[in-house]
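in:
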């Protein structure tokens, strides 16, 4: 657990310089593919190009063809494998509940039984396919938390796993990309966390725990989808029935960290924005915070500069009237993006760079002027 904002800031301080350089390198590699495709050496990689060239690199450098891999992951087989693996590890059985009350015909309900005693421990619903108006990502929802009731009995937990996996047709099964199989295992880790709880109070039941720990069971579950011996149990070609070749699994593992710099920077961007919005400062200046979350360039720096001057002047009006100068002049100037970060994914990296500088700017203002980012001052005029 981080425990204090300074530890979080120090963590980002340590990670960001190397990650930004890694991200630059990844962009340059994909940029060379774009230049080759367009016969334009000056073509600039855009955010929407990222996934396309990531897929191309997996195929060219690692021999991973996502469509070839998907042939080994029919949805029904993945679900059967998921339930078989977890049933064996945790001593569980998952009988279907045919007449359960559900919100859509696509939803399938399972009971969770203790394999030894046959006791029903919980239930979960699986809603795997997309439809209009549905939640568009993958998630697990804690519908009824397990808890001790006043009469001494235990309330059985009920959970739901929601996804948007391709729906099967009359002549073709639903075939999952490997990353979709990983996601299914991940979300089922949350379901197990929610349904196998023995907590006495709903406040601590299942995933109602410290946020840092919520993702631990789900990430542990992901492990099985990278293990060749486990995959061989259920990842079988939908036409031939042959298990996924071990060499193909090795290629998937080798490509696992492709473009990890960019994906990690994206996650850090969320974290820094979260700290800006929910950190310890009493007063939040959204105009100053917002630019660091968006892919804007010089306009962000200008807005941040105006906002910084406004906040600092507001807290030192007496000094300004006396000297004609604002105390903001002692603060660090607004950060600017590195060269070649004017657009596309370079703009994305520029955003990360400015976020990094934004952290340092606020800490510099705090230490050198006594002015906190929220506008309070530690020194009397």
């Amino acid at each position: 657990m981080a425990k204090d904002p300074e530890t979080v800031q120090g963590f980002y301080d340590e990670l960001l310089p190397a990650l930004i350089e890694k991200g630059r390198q990844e962009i340059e590699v994909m940029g060379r593919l774009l230049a080759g495709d367009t016969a334009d050496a000056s073509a600039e990689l855009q955010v929407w190009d990222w996934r396309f060239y990531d897929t191309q690199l997996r195929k060219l450098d690692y021999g991973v063809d996502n469509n070839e891999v998907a042939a080994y992951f029919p949805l029904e087989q993945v679900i059967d494998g998921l339930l078989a693996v977890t049933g064996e590890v945790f001593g569980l059985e998952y009988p279907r509940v045919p007449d359960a009350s559900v919100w859509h015909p696509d939803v399938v309900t399972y009971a969770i039984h203790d394999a030894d005693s046959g006791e029903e421990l919980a239930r979960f619903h699986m809603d795997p396919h997309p439809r209009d108006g549905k939640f568009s990502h993958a998630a697990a929802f804690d519908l009824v938390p397990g808890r001790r009731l006043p009469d001494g009995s235990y309330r059985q937990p009920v959970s739901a796993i929601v996804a948007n996996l391709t729906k099967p047709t009359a002549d073709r099964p639903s075939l999952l990309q490997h990353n979709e199989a990983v996601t299914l295992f991940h979300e089922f880790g949350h379901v197990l966390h929610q349904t196998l709880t023995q907590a006495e109070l709903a406040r601590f039941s299942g995933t109602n725990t410290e946020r840092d720990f919520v993702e631990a069971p789900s990430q542990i579950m992901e492990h099985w989808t990278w293990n060749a011996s486990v995959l061989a149990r259920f990842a079988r070609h939908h036409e031939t029935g042959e298990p996924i070749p071990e060499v193909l699994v090795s290629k998937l593992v080798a490509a696992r960290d492709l473009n990890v710099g960019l994906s990690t920077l994206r996650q850090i961007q969320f974290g820094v924005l979260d700290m800006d919005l929910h950190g310890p400062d009493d007063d939040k200046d959204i105009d100053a915070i917002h630019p660091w979350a968006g892919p804007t360039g010089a306009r962000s720096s200008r807005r941040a500069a105006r906002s910084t001057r406004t906040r600092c002047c507001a807290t030192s009006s007496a000094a300004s009237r006396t000297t004609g100068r604002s105390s903001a002049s002692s603060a660090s100037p607004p950060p600017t993006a590195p060269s070649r970060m004017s657009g596309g994914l370079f703009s994305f990296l520029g955003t990360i760079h400015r976020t990094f500088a934004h952290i340092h700017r606020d800490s510099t203002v705090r230490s050198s002027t006594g002015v906190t980012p929220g506008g309070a001052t530690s020194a009397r005029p």
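note: DSSP finds 14 helices and seven strands in the chain.
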